[in-house]
Amino acid sequence: MHASATDTDPVPPPATVQPRERLVGEDLYLEVVLNGSATERLVHFTRRGEALCATATDLRGLGLVLPPGDDERCLPDIPGLHYTYDVNRQRVSVDAPLDQLNLPRQILNKAERSATPPTSGTGVLLNYDVYAAQGGGLGNVSALTELRAFSEGLGVLSSTELTRRYQTPGQGWQGDTVRLDTQWRLAFPAQSLALTVGDTFTGYLSWTRATRIGGIGFGTDFALQPYRITTPLPQFFGQATAPSSVELYVDGIRQYNGRVPAGPFQLTAVPGVDQSGQAQVVLTDALGRSSTVTFPFYSARQLLRAGLDDWSVELGTVREAYGITSFRYGDAPIGSGTWRHGLSDSLTLESHAEAGDGRGIAGVGAVWNPAGASVLNASIAGSRGGGLQYGLGYAWTGRYVNASLDTVRSDASYRDVASNYGSPPPRASDRALIGFNVRESSFGANFVRLRYAGQSASRYAGLYVLRNLGRGISVNLSYNQNLDQSSDRSVFLGVTVSLDQRTTWSVSAQRDRDQTFVTADASRPVDGDGGFGWHVQGRSGSDGGGLAELGWLGNRGQLTVGASNVGPSSYSYADANGAIVLMGGHAFAARRIDDAFALVSTEGTPDIPVLLENRRTGVTDSSGLLLVSRLNAYQDNRLAIDPLDLPADDRVQRVESIVAPSDRSGVVVRFPVKRVRAASAILVDGNGTPLPVGALVDTGDGSPAYVGYDGMVYLDNLHGSTALRVTLPDGHRCETSLTYPASARNLPQIGPLTCRTMP
Question: Which terms in the Gene Ontology molecular function aspect does this entry carry (predicted)?
Answer without folding.
Answer: fimbrial usher porin activity
